[in-house]
Amino acid sequence: MKLELRGITKRFGALTANDHIDLTVEEGEIHCLLGENGAGKSTLMNVLYGLYQADEGDILLDDVVQHFDGPGDAMAAGIGMVHQHFMLIPVFTVAENVMLGHEQTRFGGRLDLAAARAKVREISDRFGFAVDPDALVEDLPVGVQQRVEIIKALSREAKVLVFDEPTAVLTPQETDELMATMRQLKSQGTSIVFITHKLREVREVADRITVIRLGKVVGEASPTASNEELASLMVGRAVELTVHKDAPTLRENGLSVQGLTVTDRSGIVLVDDASFEVHGGEVLAIAGVQGNGQTELTEAILGLQDHVRGSIRLDGEELVGRSVRQILDAGVGFVPEDRSVDGLVKEFSISENLMLDRSFGGEFVSAGTVRRGALDEFARAKIAEFDIRTQGPAQAAGRLSGGNQQKVVLARELSRDLALFVAAQPTRGVDVGSIEFIHKRIIDTRDAGVPVIVISTELDEVAALADRILVMYRGRVVGIVPGNTPRDQLGLMMAGMNGESA
After folding, report:
1. Do the beta carbons of residue 319 and residue 330 sit within 8 Å?
2. Given pLDDT bands bounded at 50, 70 and 90, which one contains residue 429?
3. If you ran DSSP here, which 8-state letter would residue 342 be given?
4. Is the CB of residue 426 less than 8 Å from the CB of residue 409?
5. Residue 258 — very low, low, confident or very high, per pLDDT cuts 50/70/90?
6. Exposed site from 92, 124, 182, 350, fewest CB < 10 Å?
7. Which residues pair with 15 in a beta bridge?
8. Rg for the chain (alpha carbons), in Å?
9. Cα–Cα distance between 98 and 114 in angstroms, integer?
10. Helix (H) / strand (E) containing 410
11. CA angle, corner 410, sides to 297 and 338, nearest 5?
12. Which Gene3D superfamilies match (predicted)?
């Protein structure tokens, strides 16, 4: 099915999110929509999917103008969407999620779950998904949950599939599997709109690329274009894709972790006897496939784990046994891996989110009352310093793009006097322009003499930032190696093979 968007314009008050956008996706084509966070990509696709109504412009399928009053109309016309944040009910089975909203019934009005199971098996077998229709969604890995979303769309005979930032929550291995799935869908005639800001993925899978900046189409590109050319189109300026840093100047201050063991409620070991040190003035990157203990290690440092043995000493002071508040007050800055759940209160304004770590002090609170003038002045300064694209300090954080939400978290954490900075997946779901900015701020923090821990599943990011790399596998420290260690050696270590300590 051929998709064509002509002159699509969408406004939100004074903000024009989409400005007369034209886009054509041919049948059996993977067309990448590339742009920074906040460029208008997702808004455009929400118009296509019937979630928003365009103020101007037309949607055409096979040259016929369409009118969608909601997602049901779009689905009926053959359009499916795989959202960045999955639209699944965790306590339902795969089959129940697939039939939700399109329930088939048997005699007496009983749900025909057998038909739903059969549909899941048929699509799963056709694409090699290996998805159990009776599995509970909450028990499935993230990559498999995304396959369930794809099965949902295909079960409704989608001829055009929209993938909205589909790799933001995937491991590198799951990303590779998704790329293979997209190629298979293309080979069977499905038209695909692939929304992303990750240049490697664009060049790997796209047939054509359309670049959007500030709500407008600013150009088209071929997958053979260089990363620098694509980044420049996205951001509107030359982007430095290489992290520049001098050799570290190590300080005496730092973090010492000795014999750290973390268990869950049932006694299963999640972090197994981990020991390492991070000096002031260096970046220690923790690498590994997601789910090998990195999250629990980070949470133990922040006091978020209940069952911890061993020692975590910051500048000689023991952190184990302290509350999260006490650890933050000791000068620990923390960027969590999921900003939506742990980093922000989305309903709060940008100003309110910027004071979350310091709501007990006198800087912004006096006699139990928030000093709004001082807070808003601080927020405006940080909005400018961190280039947060917003309508102002009073805007709800949840209304910002993902990259700008991440900048709010960074602005809050890096605006305090720090004794340790911990950043988990600092650029997950963030565009190339923001990645450049975030990486520079991390190196600036390191150069100021602060010990820095970066936890990342992106090997390119690990290699760019790390002075030393700690690799974890099944909760254990496999080895600690120099930051310039080759990718193939790191890959072997991530599979559990020993490396030499540095």
Report:
1. yes
2. low
3. I
4. no
5. very high
6. 92
7. 12
8. 24
9. 12
10. helix 402-413
11. 50
12. P-loop containing nucleotide triphosphate hydrolases
